[in-house]
Design brief:
The complex is a heterodimer of chains A (about 400) and B (about 150).
Chain A lengths: L18 H5 L18 E5 L5 E7 L2 E7 L10 E2 L16 E4 L5 E8 L6 E8 L10 E2 L9 E8 L5 E7 L14 E8 L10 E7 L6 E4 L5 E6 L9 E7 L2 E2 L4 E2 L16 E4 L5 E8 L4 E8 L10 E3 L7 E8 L2 E9 L4 E8 L9 E6 L7 E4 L3 E8 L3 E9 L3
Antiparallel strand pairs in A: 1-2, 2-3, 3-4, 5-6, 6-7, 7-8, 9-10, 10-11, 11-12, 13-14, 14-15, 15-16, 15-17, 18-19, 19-20, 20-21, 22-23, 23-24, 24-25, 26-27, 27-28
Chain B lengths: L1 H9 L8 E3 L3 H11 L2 E6 L4 H6 L3 H6 L5 E6 L6 H10 L7 E4 L4 H8 L9 E5 L5 E5 L4 H12 L1
Parallel strand pairs in B: 1-4, 2-3, 3-4
Antiparallel strand pairs in B: 2-5, 5-6
Classes of the chains: A mainly beta (about 400), B alpha/beta (about 150).
């Protein structure tokens, strides 16, 4: 297939080489004892030294493996948890690994506590480059919160580790109707993830079943995008900038899609801060005012947003958008499905305002994870776990010349 | 899937029994609806509004005479045991129940509705005359009853 990169130079899309070859085409093993091929979701990140780190769950346990770089083969898997548990790895939920600048690794995931999907947020740390992990510990003491889910963690430019999640504490109050949805909770670590400070609910009335989007603004503060519950049960999107004390001001509404629904969309946003400081969000809505996958940006810290632009083919379920800012511009990927084939589509922009024509990056004809974007010092990659092909890391385009 | 079959085999039907919802299952339900108006309610363990509403379905079904009420769980087949526990706790025993039997859930959803990306709860109303409508989110009891009344005419 002939492909062109966003810069018009010969394409760097090499879906059948390197890692794709390594990971793909393996028949699904009968016993899923940790095999990557069995994982419903897999999440990668590059560590500060440029090594690739992958985390996944299979057979009820959390696993990780590393490769020297994007082209090198993955090493032997390391089990982070010794015993099987009910890992939350369905749909929006995925175990995550954070490679910190001090060389340590912090893994985070949710264990389902009961049949209602109430969760316990677990953390495990490695101080030896991922060869071993200390025993997993719940973030919170028993009794603090009945449920934590959809955690998102990141290391800020100043070395603090920010951990956000959706929390169900404090929803019932004497004499009042229970609050809908969940609350957005925050805890911060000042010691590279060895411990976290007290957790607090920083935003109330968030949707309880959609992943979060996170990036750092030009000043180094975390900016979060999430599906909020606005008055009238409208599950539209909001963004906000945070300090340790909580959100700066009130949540900013991205757009009034007017999706009044008392239901779980299972469909959270993608978010990125571009090199010029603009906040970009990709989100999906089934709203009365707007239905589909959309992109918008803000150049004033969320106070106002551009008019939403639709992404993808409306009749092919475009969704699960992810954004990535690079020194050269902005990438957005999303998933489309035509009833048989699922494809990941990519659109590139130099400035986040004018977008090039979308192109297909990868396809599959069986169950598929949501797409994940990441980058190393050289370029951006799509990471995609699919039942038929296994895990693929697909180079997208050069980000440095 | 094997586990689901075993559960069905060993449990008394009144306690809990479920059928696989696979490719073609939706078309079969549409055929059923051509003989008897059918309400298909989709639910998942991951969806708090679904779990809050689930225990109301047996009573709701009793108040909809002449209507076939079918419940379909959309969680992965590997979670059959947990689904069964939740269904028993909600008292669903007597209602016809299906569970998504394919890890490729997107394809099953497409057969129901090409616009459905997995929002839940979802309730489809299949009229005997082929009319179709669906409700996303929690159910309005009065609305269902008036639809059932129309179908009875």
């Amino acid at each position: 297939m002939h492909r062109r990169s966003l810069l018009g130079i010969p394409a760097l899309l090499l879906p059948t080489r390197g890692r794709a070859q390594h990971a793909g085409h393996a028949p699904r093993p009968a016993a899923c004892d940790g095999a990557l091929a069995c994982a419903p979701v897999a999440t990668p990140m590059f560590d500060p030294a440029g090594a690739l780190r992958l985390i996944w769950s299979a057979g009820g346990r959390i696993w990780t493996a590393a490769a020297a770089d994007a082209e090198a083969p993955l090493g032997a898997p390391v089990a982070i948890t010794p015993e099987p548990a009910a890992i939350d790895d369905n749909g929006e939920a995925r175990p995550k690994l954070l490679a910190l600048r001090d060389g340590s690794l912090l893994a985070a995931w949710t264990v389902r506590r009961d049949q209602y999907y109430n969760g316990t947020l677990m953390l495990a740390r490695s101080a030896d480059g991922g060869r071993s992990f200390a025993p997993a510990m719940p973030l919170l003491a028993p009794g603090v919160s009945p449920s934590q889910r959809f955690e998102h963690l990141a290391e800020g430019p100043d070395g603090r580790v920010w951990l956000f999640w959706l929390d169900k504490r404090g929803l019932t109050r004497a004499g009042q109707k229970p609050l809908p949805g969940a609350g957005l909770a925050l805890a911060v670590s000042e010691n590279h993830g060895r411990s976290f400070g007290p957790s607090r609910i920083v935003v109330e009335n968030t949707c309880e079943c959609c992943r979060l989007g996170l990036d750092f603004d030009i000043g180094g503060a975390p900016v979060l995008a999430w599906r909020h519950i606005f008055p009238g049960s409208q599950r539209d999107h909001a963004v906000g900038r945070f300090t340790e004390a909580g959100i700066e001001g009130a949540p900013h509404r991205v757009s009034t899609d007017a999706w009044a629904i008392d239901a779980c969309p299972h469909h959270g946003p993608g978010f990125a801060v571009a090199a010029d400081g603009a906040w970009h969000i990709a989100w999906w809505s089934g709203g009365g005012a707007r239905r589909g996958l959309f992109h918008a940006f803000s150049t004033d810290g969320g106070t106002s947003f551009s008019d939403p632009i639709a992404l993808g083919e409306a009749r092919q379920q475009p969704g699960h958008g992810r954004l990535l800012a690079t020194p050269d511009g902005l990438l957005v990927v999303w998933r489309e499905f035509d009833g048989e084939t699922t494809r990941i589509r990519l659109q590139c922009s130099a400035d986040g305002r004018v977008w090039q024509t979308p192109k297909d990056v990868a396809i599959t004809r069986d169950a598929a994870d949501r797409p994940v974007l990441l980058r190393d010092a050289r370029r951006a990659y799509l990471s995609w776990q699919t039942a038929a092909e296994g895990w693929r890391l697909i180079p997208l385009a050069a980000t440095a010349t | 899937m094997k586990r689901r079959v075993l559960l069905t085999a060993f449990l008394p039907a009144s306690a809990w029994a479920t059928e696989p919802f696979d490719r073609g299952s939706w078309a079969a339900l549409e055929t059923t609806a051509s003989r008897k108006p059918t309400i298909v309610h989709f639910w998942s363990l991951t969806c708090a509004p679904c779990m809050a509403e689930l225990p109301h379905w047996p009573d709701l079904a009793r108040r909809l005479p002449g209507i076939e009420v079918v419940l379909v769980n959309t969680d992965p087949p590997e979670q059959a045991e947990t689904i069964a526990r939740a269904a028993r706790r909600a008292g669903l025993g007597a209602l016809p129940q299906f569970g998504f039997a394919d890890r490729f859930a997107a394809r099953l959803r497409w057969e129901v509705d090409p616009d459905w990306q997995g929002e839940l709860p979802r309730t489809d109303l299949l009229g005997r005359d082929g009319t179709r409508r669906h409700i996303l989110g929690s159910i309005d009891r009065a609305m269902l009853q008036s639809w059932a009344k129309e179908q009875g005419r």
